[in-house]
Amino acid sequence: MNSEASGEHRGRGGENSAVVAGWGTVTGSRRMEPEEVDRAFGMPAGKLRGRAGIESLCYVAEGENEITLAALAARQALAVARCTGEEVDWVLATSETHVGYPSLAAGLHRELGLRENCGALAVGGACLGLLHALAVAQSFLQGGQARTIVVVSADVHSRTLTPGRMAGEFGGLFGDGASALVVGGVSGDRQTAEYRLGE
After folding, report:
1. Predicted local distance difference test score (pLDDT) of residue 100
2. Residue (of 199, 75, 67) closest to 122 by Cα position
3. Considering 25, 87, 104, 158, which has the largest number of Cβ atoms within 10 A of its Cβ?
């Protein structure tokens, strides 16, 4: 990474701690009012808004999927970190909904045009997948296997948690989106990172 965001370190860690230098988030481009989702799932109008506090849901449109969302979020994160794809050593990706082949990590590697010797690893864990991926990233950085890692989570629930297949009280709660973090190691010339991962 060429530079880091300025600010105080958050959390504790030694010289080999991992820091978050860039971040990005993307949602599906089709915005839905909660009352529309109530109707689709056969629930009383106002249930999602009134009982769950949901003001809107974002679903993917035609041509959008976990890989396209993940790539957009990753590009945002790389831009914030002022980092190029050539500097990325690993891409770690997690998803509850992507079940296709190749894996989300491999598909994202291709979509971003990362160099051939950049690693790609799919990390499981369902709701805890992002935390698991951050733990793997921290281990890679502390072990010297990488200097810059892109960690991505992407899910498209609207194509699996559908009316008739899932009760609205559950299926209606989830939208589609992705988040990405650029994580790097702390070194002598990298002491002003805004967010440092704890142990």
Report:
1. 85
2. 67
3. 104
Average pLDDT over residues 21-49: 96
**Token pair for residue 70?**
């993940």
Give strand ranges (E) for 60-163: 90-94, 119-122, 148-156
What is the number of residues in the chain? 199
**How far is the C-alpha of 199 from the C-alpha of 11, rounded, in Å?**
8
C-alpha closest to that of 93 among 79, 80, 82, 77? 77
Q: Pseudo-torsion of CA 67, 73, 74, 76, nearest 10°?
A: 150
Please determine, for residue 198, whether its predicted confidence score (pLDDT) is greater than 90. no
pLDDT at 193: 52
Q: Which residues contact 98 (CB under 8 A, 6 or more apart)?
A: 65, 66, 67, 104, 154, 155, 156
Distance CA 161, CA 62 (A): 17
- Asked if 183 and 20 touch (Cβ cutoff 8 Å), the reply is yes
- Which pTM value belongs to this model? 0.86
